[in-house]
Amino acid sequence: MGMFCNQCEQAANGVGCNISGVCGKKPDVSALQDHLLYGLKSLALYADKLGRNAEIDRFTIEGLFTTVTNVDFDSVRIGEMIKRCYELKEKAKAASGVSLSGAFADWKPADDLNGMIAQGETHGLSTLHVNEDMRSIIEILILGLKGMAAYMDHAMILGKTDDDVMAFFQKALAATTDVNLGLMDFVGLSMECGKQNLTVMGLLNTAHTDAYGHPVPTAVQLGTKAGKAILVTGHDLKMLEELLKQTEGKGINVYTHGEMLPAHGYPGLKKYTHLVGNFGGAWQDQAKEFVNFPGSIIFNTNCIQKPADSYKDRLYTWGLVAWPDVKHIDGWDFSEVINKALELPGFPENPGQEILTGFGHNAVLGVADKVIAAVKSGAIKHFFLIGGCDGAKSGRNYYTEFAEKLPQDTVILTLACGKYRFNKLEFGDIGGIPRLLDIGQCNDAYSAIQIALALAGAFECGVNELPLSMILSWYEQKAVVILLTLFSLGIKNIKLGPSLPAFVTPNILNFLVETFNIAPITTVEEDMKSILG
Ligand code: SF4
Ligand code: SF3
């Protein structure tokens, strides 16, 4: 059985995974994910005509997020989603009263998993186009939709949605089945996807700050506290809050991992005194780090990797993340995770280094006067946004080296898990402003954009004219949609690494270079020289 997937930065040989996924995705799961995406397009053909339907819209978001890299590796769960997708498609068809025909409109999955896998193998990138540039731009749109769905899922968990955004999801998915649309139609839809994602990231920002307050600068302990322990990894703050409530007074300390680190900055979460610190680094180090965590571990979103036997029995998944044979928690009752932690030895007291987080736009703009004065006096010469995803492939020490070699009169803004490349280093401060400001998770790119817009307003220039450079790293589809958002805002001169996406053809890349002057990272010396002169 073969497969083809090129949606992330780990795509084998820079082309695509065709025997088995570098991420651990097996051909059957790949076929089922392709099949689910095909079903979501079929559903969208009717949902687009039907208008807003909460059940269908919620499913579309969950379905798309399920196919994001490092989320769901469980064939049985994906098979169930395909069945559900078909039920909803039939429901949307009946309710919309429209009659459509064609391969997508007539989609019907087989009754059993093997049949669904066989169908999925024929769906591939599930487009009717043969031109490779068309396929490339359609894939960019689809991967953008997947990334945006991830952020929408978190917003929906906190009770937020947006009708216009949901209408766009269905319109764009349906458009990918339309052979009459041309290249520029999909360029337009991709830019619109970026714009819609700004709304979604804003919605999620409001959801977070309504529920937990605006992040405040907070020192996070990297050592351990004596007691039983639970590690939470992923991105979902609501899940962490529920776990904190359920562990209160039980003698269990809760630690964050990976993209959960910024949780410590939220007043509504940091008030729990048993949220004690952050353990480990970015996702790709989980296998070597989790073995040393003497408590239970729970994933609430990506990035999960094949668990080692040494910690599999104390590992749990929640929400859309799943791995075969790893216990999945449905709903909001975490007693099983808690009871497991109580059986395990926990940590001894071992204080360690502290690092700072919590520099969202509210905190940074709260000291805007100081920042602007420092720029005007020449104390701050340049800002660098060094952020994005971390990953396993070599070449990512570029980001560590870049941060280390920056002159002392520069400030680094960072976000997402790529920060682990340098967030334990000492950068000092400029007149009391820390030189390293952790804005938050990948979705807090929204906050970075607000900071950039406010600075541009204060200096009466455009964002491209600011002394600000973006040195970004990508890995999965959330990074793709953030790039589309930056493009939709007209942001130019981004340097992107560690390698360029396999799904971008030379012609599409030329278009992006000509329009946005985006460039691949080269060497630290060369890139720094080209920016700072
Ligand atoms: Fe390969 Fe990435 Fe696809 Fe996994 S998600 S199969 S690593 S391209
Ligand atoms: Fe990291 Fe997976 Fe992208 Fe939220 S946790 S940024 S890679």
Supply the key terms:
single chain; 533 residues; alpha/beta; Substrate Binding Domain Of Dnak, Chain:A, Domain 2; Rossmann fold; 19 helices; 16 strands; 45% helix; binds FE4-S3 cluster
What does this molecule look like?
This protein has helices spanning 27-50, 54-66, 75-96, 113-121, 132-157, 163-175, 183-212, 237-247, 267-270, 286-290, 309-312, 335-343, 361-366, 368-377, 397-405, 445-458, 477-488, 506-516, 524-532; strands spanning 218-221, 228-233, 252-257, 275-278, 296-299, 315-318, 327-329, 354-357, 382-388, 410-415, 429-430, 433-434, 436-440, 468-473, 495-497, 519-520. By secondary structure, it is an alpha/beta fold. It has three domains: 12-210, Substrate Binding Domain Of Dnak, Chain:A, Domain 2 (Up-down Bundle); 218-343, Rossmann fold (3-Layer(aba) Sandwich); 360-532, Rossmann fold (3-Layer(aba) Sandwich), CATH 3.40.50. The strands form four sheets. Strands 4-3-2-5-6-7 form a six-stranded parallel beta sheet, with helices on one face. A hairpin with a 2-residue loop joins strand 11 and strand 12. The mean pLDDT is 97. Iron/sulfur cluster binds at residues 5-8, 10-11, 17, 21-23, 25, 69.
